[in-house]
Design goal:
Oligomer: single chain
Helix content: 40-55%
Radius of gyration: 21 Å
Shape: globular
Structural class: alpha/beta
Number of strands: 8
Largest sheet: 8 strands, mixed
Number of helices: 15
Strand content: 5-15%
Number of domains: 2
Strand order of the largest sheet: 3-2-1-4-5-6-7-8
CATH class of the largest domain: Alpha Beta
Length: about 375
């Protein structure tokens, strides 16, 4: 049986974005939250989204009204129990998520698939709160969920294969590009994106360049639409720091930089102004550091079989708008050049060279 009815817990930015995506795909969705005010904001956001689409001629006004009518809201959790799929989108805190799923597990049908939208917590840790971990899975949407095409689909230790297949089918039905990955810290995209932002902050901490120069260099050497500091200001440094801290068990390289802790814990944004042109030497040094970070962390993730090389490239392109896919770029550079970029990190952080370096040259080509 395919998924036709969807429930969402949490009417914040992410939950409301997922609801819009589901509704515009022709499926009914019940959006639940403890706050009537949050539900009102979510409904208002959906109304603006669909009316804007109608105003621009993408859909008719009747279609906009129909899509909006497919979203119902309420503070009562019980209607979620009759949904084919329930996606949790509450605050990124393990205890809060565990309590949410204890409640959902108590009211869900025996065949209801329960999914978490966590961006950094391990799916299998959250699965401990449900009565049937085989029906539990991770669906990590990227912001804005109503527009960003990527969804990481994370199979927990006990997730059944048929559940994975149903969720992959659901993603495609709702015009998403699913990236299947293993349940490991950071999954696929944050596994290299968060260390990349952290490395950028280290470069600033060391006085190599300003945040503005780092952003310009990143756009040049990685082909990113926005530099790391501009992106951190969009997602908020505090949120980024929270995700980085969940990667720290992976080893010394993943420890949060001093500047990241200072700005993130203060709840501040990075101050960005006009960038003075960096010298060729600075551009080369910082560019090598940023590329080395991306390559090093992806190669380590490939060692752990987190995802396939093509999946990392899709994540970089779809979620982060990298014009230069990292695995494809490594293949183009060749093993020797990639090793030259990665070796300094291995030496500084006393970490073995990733075994997947031997695959470079044939990762995706």
């Amino acid at each position: 049986m395919s998924i036709t009815s969807v429930g969402i817990v949490g009417a914040g930015t992410m939950g409301s974005g997922i609801a819009i995506n589901v509704a515009q795909s022709g499926l009914s969705v019940y959006l639940s939250d403890l706050s009537e005010e949050s539900l009102d904001r979510a409904k208002s956001s959906a109304t603006k989204f669909f009316n804007r689409a109608a105003d621009k001629g993408r859909i008719s006004q009747d279609q906009a009204d129909e899509a909006l009518g497919r979203i119902t809201t309420g503070t009562d959790l019980n209607p979620l129990g009759q949904c084919d799929l329930v996606i949790e989108a509450v605050f990124e805190d393990l205890d809060i998520k565990l309590e949410t799923f204890r409640k959902l597990s108590a009211i869900a049908r025996d065949d209801t698939i329960l999914a978490t939208n966590t961006s950094c917590l391990k799916v299998s840790d959250i699965a401990e709160a449900v009565k049937d971990p085989g029906l539990f899975i991770g669906t990590h949407y990227f912001s804005p969920a109503q527009l960003n095409p990527l969804v990481e689909v994370i199979k927990g230790e006990k997730t059944r294969d048929e559940v994975v297949e149903k969720v992959l089918e659901f993603c495609k039905k709702t015009s998403k590009k699913p990236l299947l990955c293993r349940d490991q810290n950071g999954f696929a995209v944050n596994r290299f994106f968060c260390p990349y932002t952290n490395e950028a902050v280290r470069c600033v901490d060391e006085g190599l360049a300003s945040p503005e120069q780092l952003d310009t260099i990143a756009q040049s050497v990685l082909g990113t639409a926005f530099g790391p500091f501009a992106v951190m200001n969009i997602v908020k440094p505090q949120v980024n720091l929270h995700a980085i801290r969940h990667l720290e068990p992976l080893g010394p390289y993943y420890q949060a930089a001093d500047g990241m802790i200072r700005v993130g814990d203060a709840g501040e944004n990075w101050s960005l102004g006009e960038a003075e042109a960096a010298s060729p030497e600075t551009t080369r040094t910082v560019g090598n550091r940023l590329r080395g970070s991306v390559f090093f962390t992806i190669l380590q993730a490939l060692d752990e079989q987190v995802a396939e090389p093509a999946a990392f490239d899709m994540g970089a392109q779809q979620a982060l708008r990298f014009e230069q896919p990292p695995c494809q770029t490594m293949d183009s550079l060749g093993k020797e050049a990639v090793e030259e970029l990665v070796r300094p990190l291995c030496e500084i952080y006393n970490t073995p060279m990733p075994r997947s370096l031997d695959r470079v040259g044939g990762l995706v080509l």
